[in-house]
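**Entry details**
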Amino acid sequence: MDELACFAPDMLALGASGYGPEKSEQIMNMAKEDMSVGTSWNILRLETVESLMYLWRLTGNTTYQDWGWDIFQAFEKNFRVEFGYVGLRDVNTGEKGNMMQSFFLAETLKYLYLLFSPPSVISFEDWVFNTEAHPLRIAPVNGNKGIGTPVRPFGRKQGKPE
């Protein structure tokens, strides 16, 4: 599976709601069939930890934080070098690359930080992220707090299941 496909959980979590259980099961089965491991490299991309952060914020389920901690510990154990972090050319052999991608610091670590921060650090009621993980404040319109009523997928508030 290409690392960019790791954003798929966010598409499901942030997408349309109101499907019946049979439709949700059908979508998840399609995802299982269509997604498979196709590469053996890891360049410390952000999509997995980004998805974990959003899923934790939407559900309040600390399992997502546990998985994020496991990922961070794997970064420390397998990707850390004297002056930073490098990707692995092959995760099976542990062969390291020779470059730290800028998105690791700018995006991957930012989403890990947010995964372990209270939702009030950057409220999804007031902020959105661009594709480079930069937070952008939602601009007020006509004296309102924001553009409109924030959408809460699945009827949940940030960090707390209803």
